[in-house]
Design brief:
- The complex is a heterodimer of chains A (about 300) and B (about 450).
- Chain A is an alpha+beta fold.
- Chain A folds into two domains: about 1-60, no CATH class; about 80-305, 2-Layer Sandwich (Alpha-Beta Plaits), CATH 3.30.70.
- Chain A contains nine helices and 13 strands.
- In chain A, a hairpin with a 4-residue loop joins β11 (about 245) and β12.
- The termini of chain A are far apart.
- Chain B has a single domain (about 25-430), classed as Up-down Bundle (Formate dehydrogenase/DMSO reductase fold).
- Chain B is built from 17 helices and no strands.
- In chain B, about 40% of the residues are buried.
- Classes of the chains: A alpha+beta (about 300), B mainly alpha (about 450).
- At the A-B interface, β4, α3, α4, β8 and α9 of A face α6, α7 and α12 of B.
């Protein structure tokens, strides 16, 4: 017991003093730097050092904190998505919001909505499908250069600055989640000038592979992905499995309870990919599936109807 | 170097052809160059405009570039397996054909991988394979296997050519560059007993290495497809299936090349009907083996009748989609060579070459049928209004690059034949080796029989 107390107090001592010491060192360092540059003109900023002193630091001497390690993932997180098929009526807002956010053309869809019918006698339903961010991702396995990778927070990302465009990941993905940039994208000026990061996937690079990224850049700011907040019917829930919570912006659920109560399932679980996207079956639906044809042209309706059920 | 009159005669015959070129030869060269220029144009267009100029789209992400890649790596088997095995077994009739086979190997192993590069979205990042290469990826296996294979087959061809290069060095050519190049390449080879011994040993080792290497290369290639969760690809049979298909097509191309050079350079005295017959019989056996694999592959997936597998099969058997191609590639291309070669009355130089050509074409189409229908059948329904995203059809750019690859193959072959005799002219010591081997085997058999007889005697008493 006593020993335990001792170690605890020792740990406490270190945890209290180390930041102080570090703060003092950086404070002194910054101070000395600002002193050295005293003669030069320039804006100064008041900075509170971690030992509680207010210091004046020249703006030019300040460097931003290191950018987040985009290959590591956000510590302590395990992102999941739950899609409630009972509420989807093919409003396609998730598709268009995603396209707008990532600067995609209207034809390239990272979020897709399929009309599914498992067999001739079963009911058709709308099926929004992002990347599943599998825990056993076949795409990551085959990438020859590690351009697509799995992070600790469960997200599978593509580094478009490393991708060589061999498209092996596209043939390996059984869920058709990946989209190739066949030609130079027409981006807005603002988007084209942004610094590229695999977390934002913007600006896109020609000749490389893109896909739904679960918007980790937004998650860092605590904002829901656009497909979640953009959905008028609250179909898509996003959240953290470690905190056991998912939300669609309006209502929040305990993830485990939602999956348990509503019989959540994995699409094509038999492939052994262990997705991080869960579906709630389309029972007690609030829309008829035909409501989903509202925004579609005659041709599109015909096309959707003819291509749902596998013919053989 | 000592020369027997037969070698001198052959050397004079080939040296004369190597320095001269006929009018029709020049025209053929120009035609080949035009095709290659067409490919160059297509390449520039593709680099400037991006992959949008090809018929490849998000579902069919690999088109005929990959088909050509598999095809060329397949025909490279001519030199690797055929000449490797013939060399190891010391088959005496191999001498006039092994050089052709080895040249096929080297050229097609250079051209094949170029198609992979055409398929890459970012050629400018080729260095990433070295910087970030992951050994877990079958593509890296492929890169390693093919580079090793290419180096191995170049060494094999070179070792097998050293004797001829030494002869050419001593031949009174008019041009100076020839002398310089031959002198450099012949490595002071003079045909001493020691040199001959080392050379033979090197050739034996290389032919033993090249066989497993060739099998590995095509297995890895098959695994690129077999490792994915795709109907029509995810099959355990794929690696041996690809290997057999590759030797089949390699033998076919070898027969065609023999026929062409025989006509072109009047080699009737060297390449005889026997060679066509023997290779024809090898082709027939390989055809039967390949047909067996094909049958086994489609029968199991049809009988199992899993939804996804059936989707692909129905596409292949649909008259409006791939049936006629499938019929030609999997039935005509297999049965016709077997029937024509099996029946002695049909078997002659021209017919064997004709069925070889059919088999080679059928195998190109078969590779197309392996790649495209599977990619057109994703697991999720294909709900895309853009027809080019649903059905793949190669564009002019892709065809231009395909034909220019074939033209480049022919051109390089032609240039090789102007640089070195297309048939080994120097006398090799094969027959001696072969008879030695045979006496060795005979001695062993005799010994065993003697022992058995003694044992019998002993049991009786």
């Amino acid at each position: 017991m006593e020993e335990g107390k001792n170690t605890q107090s020792r740990r406490k001592f270190f945890s209290n003093t180390i930041p102080l010491a570090l703060g003092a060192i950086t404070g002194i360092g910054l101070l000395s730097q600002s002193c050295n540059n005293d003669e030069e003109e320039g804006e100064t900023v008041s900075v509170l050092s971690s030992d509680g002193q207010l210091v004046q630091v020249k703006k030019s001497a300040m460097t931003p904190t290191a950018s987040p390690n985009v290959r590591q993932g956000i510590p302590g997180k395990s992102f999941v998505m739950v899609i409630d098929l009972a509420k989807c009526k093919n409003a396609r807002k998730c598709v268009s919001k995603c396209q707008k956010m990532h600067g995609l053309s209207t034809e390239d869809e990272w979020m897709k909505v399929f009309l599914m019918q498992d067999s001739n006698d079963t009911a058709p339903y709308w099926f929004p499908k992002p990347c599943f961010h599998c825990n056993q991702p076949p795409c990551v396995k085959v990438c020859p250069v590690g351009a697509t990778y799995k992070r600790t927070d469960g997200i599978v990302l593509v580094d478009n600055e490393r991708c060589i465009g061999c498209k092996f990941c596209m043939t390996a993905c059984p869920y058709s989640s990946r989209v190739f940039q066949w030609k130079e994208a027409e981006l807005s000026e603002e988007m084209a000038e942004r610094d590229y990061s695999p977390e934002s996937s913007v600006p896109s690079k020609v000749g490389t592979v893109g896909k739904c990224d679960f918007c980790p850049d937004m998650a860092r700011k605590g904002i829901l992905p656009d497909c979640v907040s953009g959905c008028p019917n609250g179909v898509i829930y996003f959240g953290d499995k470690n905190e056991d919570i998912v939300t669609n912006g309006n209502e929040s659920f305990r993830f485990s309870k939602l999956i348990h109560d509503r019989a959540g399932y994995h699409y094509m679980a038999e492939l052994g990919t262990e997705p991080n996207v869960y579906y709630l079956p389309p029972v007690n639906r609030i829309f008829d599936y035909e409501d989903g044809f509202e925004n579609l042209s005659e041709d599109q309706i015909k096309f959707f109807k003819s291509s749902t059920v596998k013919k053989h | 170097m000592d020369q027997d009159p037969k070698t001198t005669r052959a050397l004079n015959f080939f040296a004369a052809q190597m320095v001269s070129i006929s009018k029709s030869g020049i025209i053929q060269l120009i035609i080949l160059s035009l095709f290659i220029l067409g490919g160059l144009y297509a390449l520039i267009v593709q680099i400037i405009e991006g992959h949008i100029v090809t018929g490849m789209r998000d579902n069919v992400v690999w088109g005929i570039y990959i088909v050509n890649f598999i095809f060329f790596i397949g025909i490279s088997y001519a030199g690797a397996l055929i000449s490797g095995i013939l060399h190891l077994l010391g088959v005496p009739w191999r001498t006039p054909i092994i050089r052709i086979a080895e040249i096929i190997t080297v050229i097609s192993t250079i051209i094949g991988p170029a198609y992979i590069l055409l398929c890459m979205g970012r050629l400018d990042r080729l260095d990433h394979l070295a910087l970030y290469g992951r050994i877990q990826s079958p593509i890296i296996w492929d890169v390693l296997a093919i580079t090793t294979y290419l180096i191995g087959s170049i060494i094999f061809l070179y070792l097998a050519s050293i004797r001829d290069l030494a002869l050419l060095r001593d031949y009174p050519f008019k041009s100076k560059w020839r002398h310089k190049v031959y002198k450099f390449l012949a490595l002071d080879f003079n045909g001493t007993a020691k040199q001959n011994r080392y050379l033979e040993r090197g050739l034996n080792i290389m032919s033993a290495i090249i066989i497993p290497l060739a099998i590995l290369v095509h297995s890895v290639l098959a695994w690129i497809f077999g490792m994915t969760l795709r109907p029509g690809w995810h099959s355990t049979i794929f690696a041996p299936y690809f290997v057999v298909a590759a030797v089949f097509s390699g033998t076919g191309v070898l027969i065609i090349a023999m026929w062409v050079f025989r006509k072109y350079y009047h080699l009737e005295a060297y390449i005889t009907k026997i060679h066509f017959n023997y290779l024809g019989i090898i082709l027939m056996i390989l055809g039967a083996l390949y047909g067996y694999f094909t049958f086994s592959e489609y029968l199991t997936s049809w009988y199992g009748s899993e939804t996804w597998e059936m989707e692909v099969l129905y596409r292949l058997f649909d008259v409006n989609e791939y049936w006629w191609l499938f019929f030609f590639a999997a039935i005509v291309g297999v049965l016709l060579p077997i029937i024509v070669i099996l029946i002695p009355r049909f078997r002659n130089i021209n017919s064997i070459t004709a069925v070889s050509a059919i088999a080679v074409l059928a195998l190109w189409i078969k590779r197309y049928l392996i790649i495209i229908p599977t990619l057109e059948t994703p697991l999720l329904p294909l709900q895309d209004m853009r027809t080019e995203y649903i059905h793949y059809s190669p564009t002019l750019i892709e065809w231009l690059l395909t034909f220019s690859g074939v033209a480049l193959f022919c051109l390089l072959f032609f240039l090789f034949s102007k640089f070195i005799p297309i048939i080994t002219v120097s006398k090799t010591d094969d027959r001696k080796d072969y008879s030695e081997l045979r006496t060795l085997v005979m001695k062993r058999i005799m010994k065993r029989k003697l022992k058995e007889a003694q044992l019998k005697e002993f049991n009786k008493s």
